[in-house]
């Protein structure tokens, strides 16, 4: 008789555990007892890492599908808007050196190739606008500190594309309450004392301190770096990626605002340092700031000095928290009846905020592909592993791209990052192609893509990558391209006038709420 | 606009021309109303819902035109319509919130002392020669009272409609007789499909709370959109005739 999949047991109550529970429960109608039963066991003795404060725009769909109100999310999670990232000092290291990776796609993308047209223009003119400014209005919106929508915009709808900055600790409690009260997720607070496997190698049940045995047809490992189920129990080895991505340490700190009504920067600011980079994320009540660096290139004390210099006088009252990072991921992500989501599956570094989105995508995929029986699970596991491996590879390529385009010479960290031996072949191949044409959808043909070709364009041309336009065929639709550039200019004028100050809008959302329609 | 709290002593000499109140709505395509006006308003205008641009909250309005700043009922001298909303008729008076020492918010009557309704030729005063409130002021006070009381019921209606998912965005795509396309966004109405799909308990609750009549008023009023299109077409052909004369 077929072993039907009826219940899921999630181990770990951090962001990964609760988001996964919520995404699957919403999809499988767990709340009315009709669908798959989900229980989540979390320890009250093991803390969560809880640094991840930047999301992707995907979080809007994720929360909406879970039935969360965006107004509540702003009220409960110290949430603010994120309209992409501003990268400072990544190219030359000069104080004036910056570029944007906005979330609004280039005007007319992907049917129009503004990148090649911009490159041709920029080669002739010293006063050419930056790539992101020429093709998108969002940099102008960010530089003025404006929000991406209006108080009359419905929940989750934006004028400009946006994601969020959030307080990870509050976010976990918020999602937990929603999962337990609204989505029918069964919450067990206990410690797992032993993981017991059956003769087939599957996980049979968990032994706990107080709650006896917990069983499940599918076990989801959200236990964090420890990887209790997939790593420790199922013995799936860890694949180290530190030969490509050198960041292995973070110093994180919470920085108060000067005043309660200080402006909230509506994008992530990433400022390159001598041996890594500093993230700066504006929440409602404070900033989250942290220096990620390579401990084989500098010492913690030296890094602390750089972080303090960045923060300024305020650093004296602050106590940075040190976090160790092992860049890498598990060799496979689903083995037997166990799949890992979140840090238990791997982590690289916070650049481009790929951690939360990978949780969303993985949980979404598990929910969508949910095998009907244990017998069909191995087929699903194979597909899940292929897709997830592809995603990790693309993230690694994209993160590495930021480092190899830098022209900084001020430390071994930057010079070593450009060593060809540290660059994946897949990335080298792409770069070769892009010397003669702009990144396009033809480069990213999987339905499991992480970053759109537009993101590669923003980083490449933001960082001064030169494309040889001499042999480009003349554009067959020059008129349409001219119009797209003009349209972007008029959108820039329109939205820099109409969009409200970022903090003002957040205050209004908290006071009046956003409408659902 | 300059609002000050009305003082019977200080403002006793003011002369007001109430006929000019309607002129202030000459360029308003949306005028807010309260639920107690729905029945009368529905005979003249489409009743729609729109978001307050400052708070994003829904309120009911009568629709006067097919684009911003268009009031098709404005004839050049008055609102040529059988029912003029209270929010026009109260002008140049407004309801303000007084900051009281106790912290409680009290409504106070304010006047816009820069309003064009205040004119030496005006026929109305706020106080009679004996110092008592004039019939004009009494009428204004009654209008304002209706608006203030109506606000609470209106809020109840809106929150009930929202909780039952009864509001939906409407987009007007209109082609005028001369071929000009008009596209109106940002308006909301009652979602009739969802309204008709409500279960008996919910309909009964609407009935008990006196909200069912209001929903039907809104639904019936939507047909008034054809009147707006007719007025707009008339205006366009009039404009055309003017231009032809000039040539």
Can you tell me about this structure?
The complex is a heterodimer of chains A (517) and B (247). By secondary structure, chain A is of the alpha+beta class. Chain A contains 16 helices and 21 strands. Chain A is 36% helix and 18% strand. In chain A, helix 1 (15-27) links the parallel strand 1 and strand 2 (37-42). The longest helix of chain A has 31 residues, at 374-404. Chain A is globular, with a radius of gyration of 23 Å. By secondary structure, chain B is an alpha+beta fold. Chain B has one domain. In chain B, 34% of the residues lie in helices and 21% in strands. Chain B is built from seven helices and eight strands, in the order E-E-H-E-E-H-E-E-H-E-E-H-H-H-H. Classes of the chains: A alpha+beta (517), B alpha+beta (247). The A-B interface holds A 150-153, 508, 511-517 and B 51-58, 162, 167-169, 186, 188.
TL;DR of this structure?
The complex is a heterodimer of chains A (517) and B (247). Chain A is built from 16 helices and 21 strands. With 517 residues, chain A is of the alpha+beta class.
| Global shape of chain B | flat
Radius of gyration of chain B: 21 Å
Specify the structural class of chain A. alpha+beta
Q: pLDDT average of chain A, as an integer?
A: 95
Beta strands of chain A, count: 21
Q: Give start-end ranges of low-pLDDT stretches of chain A.
A: none
What amount of the residues of chain B lies in strands?
A: 15-25%
**H/I helix tally of chain A:** 16
Q: What are the segments of chain B in which pLDDT stays under 50 over at least 5 consecutive residues?
A: none
Number of strands of chain B: 8
Greatest interface and its participating residue counts: A-B, 12 and 14 residues
- In DSSP terms (H or I, runs of 4 or more residues), the helix count of chain B works out at 7
Shape of chain A: globular
Question: Helix-strand pattern of chain B, N to C?
Answer: EEHEEHEEHEEHHHH
The level of helicity of chain B is 25-40%
Number of separate structural domains of chain B:
1
């Amino acid at each position: 008789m077929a072993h039907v999949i009826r219940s899921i047991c999630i181990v770990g109550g951090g962001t990964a555990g609760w988001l996964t529970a919520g995404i699957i429960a919403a999809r499988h109608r767990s709340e009315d007892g009709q669908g798959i039963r989900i229980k989540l066991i979390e320890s009250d003795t093991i803390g969560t890492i809880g640094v991840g404060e930047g999301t992707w725009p995907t979080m809007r769909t994720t929360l909406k599908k879970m039935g969360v109100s965006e107004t509540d999310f702003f009220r409960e999670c110290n949430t603010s808007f994120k309209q992409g990232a501003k990268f400072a000092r990544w190219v030359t290291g000069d104080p004036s050196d910056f570029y944007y990776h906005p979330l609004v796609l280039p005007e007319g993308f992907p049917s129009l190739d503004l990148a090649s047209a911009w490159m041709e223009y920029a080669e002739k003119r010293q006063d050419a606008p930056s790539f992101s400014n020429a093709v998108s209005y969002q940099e102008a919106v960010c530089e003025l500190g404006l929000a991406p929508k209006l108080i009359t915009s419905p929940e989750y709808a934006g004028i400009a594309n946006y994601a969020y900055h959030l307080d990870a600790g509050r976010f976990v409690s918020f999602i937990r309450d929603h999962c337990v009260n609204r989505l029918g997720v069964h919450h067990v607070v206990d410690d797992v004392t032993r993981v017991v496997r059956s003769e087939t190698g599957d996980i049979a049940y968990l032994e706990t301190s107080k709650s006896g045995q917990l069983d499940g047809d599918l076990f989801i490992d959200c236990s964090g770096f420890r990887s209790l189920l997939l790593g420790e129990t199922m013995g799936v080895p860890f694949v180290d990626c530190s030969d490509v991505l050198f960041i292995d340490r973070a110093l994180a700190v919470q920085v108060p605002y000067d005043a309660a009504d200080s402006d909230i920067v509506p994008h992530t600011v990433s400022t390159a340092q001598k041996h890594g980079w500093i993230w700066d994320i504006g929440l409602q009540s404070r900033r989250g700031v942290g220096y990620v660096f390579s401990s084989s290139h500098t010492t913690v004390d030296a890094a602390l000095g750089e972080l303090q210099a960045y923060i300024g006088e305020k650093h004296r009252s602050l106590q940075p928290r040190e976090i160790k990072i092992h860049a890498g991921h598990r060799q496979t992500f689903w083995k037997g009846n166990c799949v890992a989501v979140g840090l238990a599956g791997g982590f690289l570094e916070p650049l481009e905020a790929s951690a939360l989105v990978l949780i969303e995508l993985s949980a979404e995929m598990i929910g969508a592909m949910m095998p009907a029986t244990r017998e069909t699970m191995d087929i699903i596991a194979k597909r899940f592993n292929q897709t997830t491996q592809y995603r990790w590879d693309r993230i690694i390529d994209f993160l590495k791209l930021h480092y190899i385009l830098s022209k900084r010479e001020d430390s071994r960290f930057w010079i070593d990052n450009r060593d060809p031996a540290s660059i994946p072949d897949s990335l080298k191949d792409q770069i070769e192609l892009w010397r003669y044409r702009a990144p396009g959808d033809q480069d990213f043909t999987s339905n499991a893509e992480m970053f759109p070709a537009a993101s590669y364009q923003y980083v490449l041309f933001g960082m001064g990558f030169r494309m040889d336009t001499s042999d480009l065929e003349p554009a067959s639709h020059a008129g349409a391209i001219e119009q797209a550039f003009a349209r972007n200019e008029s959108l820039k004028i329109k939205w820099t006038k109409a969009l409200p100050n970022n903090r003002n809008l957040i205050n209004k959302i908290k006071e009046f709420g956003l409408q659902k329609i | 606009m300059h609002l000050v709290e009305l003082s019977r002593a200080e403002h006793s000499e003011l002369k007001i021309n109430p006929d000019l109140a309607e002129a202030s709505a000459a360029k308003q395509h949306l005028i807010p109303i309260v639920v107690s006006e729905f029945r009368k308003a529905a005979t003249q205008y489409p009743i729609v819902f729109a978001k307050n641009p400052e708070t994003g909250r829904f309120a009911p309005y009568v629709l006067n035109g097919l684009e911003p700043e268009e009031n098709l009922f404005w004839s050049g001298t008055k609102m040529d319509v059988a029912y003029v909303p209270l929010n026009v008729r109260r002008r140049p008076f407004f309801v303000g919130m007084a900051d009281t020492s106790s912290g409680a918010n009290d409504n106070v009557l304010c006047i816009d002392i820069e309003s064009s309704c205040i004119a030496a030729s005006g026929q109305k005063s706020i106080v009679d020669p004996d110092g008592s409130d004039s019939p004009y002021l009494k009428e204004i006070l009654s209008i304002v009272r209706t608006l203030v009381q109506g606000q609470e019921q209106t809020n109840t209606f809106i929150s009930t409609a929202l909780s039952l998912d009864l509001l939906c965005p409407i987009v007007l795509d209109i082609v005028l007789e001369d071929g000009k396309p008009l596209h109106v966004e940002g308006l909301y109405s009652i979602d009739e499909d969802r309204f008709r799909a409500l279960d008996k308990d919910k309909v009964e609750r609407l009935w008990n709370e006196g909200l069912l009549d209001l929903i039907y008023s809104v639904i019936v009023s939507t047909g008034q959109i054809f009147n707006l299109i007719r007025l707009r077409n008339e205006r366009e052909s009039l404009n055309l005739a003017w231009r032809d004369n000039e040539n």
